[in-house]
Write a structure and sequence with these properties.
- The complex is a heterodimer of chains A (116) and B (113).
- With 116 residues, chain A is mainly beta.
- Chain A is 0% helix and 53% strand.
- In chain A, β4 and β5 form a beta hairpin.
- In chain B, a hairpin with an 8-residue loop joins β9 and β10.
- Chain B has 113 residues and is mainly β.
- In chain B, 42% of the residues are buried.
- The model of chain B has no long low-confidence stretch (mean pLDDT 91).
- The chains are: A mainly beta (116), B mainly beta (113).
């Protein structure tokens, strides 16, 4: 029972570099999402997806891209990293309830990103 | 601004005491969820309460929901040192966006042995 797997756990980037945070789930969840967690700010939604081929923006999407080519995977891409993107990133997934709502979220362990 | 906000920001109690945390939100909801986060880990779901429920229990957890006041509370009874964690409520980011769950800054609970 792997649940939600995030890689890498830690990453240090220089300003302007690009990278992809990987997220995979093995629960056949339709809904997947990315959050960032910063001190005093709670968790803020970056992007989410309700199924393969469908993605949408959350509260703080700027500077991030996503795609959903399979049900299992939902990578988060930083095209040109900035120090403001230093944060802990969490991927979460769930069933879609009645085709409408995200339900109980299962979270990954997080990826800590530092941009110098 | 956050849709759901927990208070207090921090709470320190002795083992065996009860801990109460509150969540206030701004828009209409279908349900409200509570999560726990241990230091350095991902969030773990605790309990979900639907908008037509006023109270729900799960083990030592008791959640109440008052939709007229747009508030919820999480009560942990007979707390243990292992309950030390941050607790978050999750609500839709805005009305009609049940696919966008948002979390407040959390309540940091410390249970002293």
């Amino acid at each position: 029972n792997a649940g939600v797997t995030q890689t890498p756990k830690f990453q240090v980037l220089k300003t302007g570099q690009s990278m992809t945070l990987q997220c995979a789930q093995d629960m056949n969840h339709e809904y997947m999402s990315w959050y960032r967690q910063d001190p005093g700010m709670g968790l803020r939604l970056i992007h989410y997806s309700v199924g393969a081929g469908i993605t949408d923006q959350g509260e703080v999407p700027n500077g991030y891209n996503v795609s959903r080519s399979t049900t299992e995977d939902f990578p988060l891409r930083l095209l040109s990293a900035a120090p403001s993107q230093t944060s802990v990133y969490f991927c979460a997934s769930s069933y879609v309830e009645q085709g409408i709502a995200a339900n109980v979220l299962t979270f990954g362990a997080g990826s800590r990103l530092t941009v110098l | 601004s956050q849709q759901g906000e927990e208070d207090p920001q921090a709470l320190s109690i002795q083992e065996g005491e009860n801990a109460t945390m509150n969540c206030s939100y701004k828009t209409s909801i279908n349900n409200l969820q509570w999560y726990r986060q241990n230091s350095g880990r991902g969030l773990v779901h605790l309990i979900l309460i639907r908008s037509n429920e006023r109270e729900k229990h799960s083990g030592r957890l008791r959640v109440t929901l008052d939709t007229s006041k747009k508030s919820s509370s999480l009560l942990i009874t007979a707390s243990r040192a292992a309950d030390t964690a941050s607790y978050f409520c999750a609500t839709p980011r805005k009305a009609g966006s049940a696919r966008q769950l948002t979390f407040g800054s959390g309540t940091q609970l410390t249970v002293l042995p």
